[in-house]
Amino acid sequence: MGMNCNRVEHFEETRMKIQTEIPIHQVRLPPETTSFNKLKHRLSEIFFPDDPLHRFKNQPSFTKFLLTLQFLFPIFQWGSQYTFTLLRSDVISGLTIASLAIPQV
Hints:
Blueprint: H1 8-21, H2 35-47, H3 61-72, H4 75-78, H5 84-101
């Protein structure tokens, strides 16, 4: 009847050949970091994602101070364009949301 290629021994030999042909790479542990460096890295990722400090390069000290204020307190950035019409719209929106959020007795 001929040789049957579906035998388990045939698949195991093929599997062994494939496994021996794959090069083995050694995985090294990452360098040890101190707890302070870990905390510093995590805080920088939380407060400054995607390098927002690119605007600060090659700027005078006063401009850096203003950019810092605008970054930490966004009202310094858009506050000068805020108008009475926007305030009125914000008050109406706030009252609408408050009336929906506060349960009526």
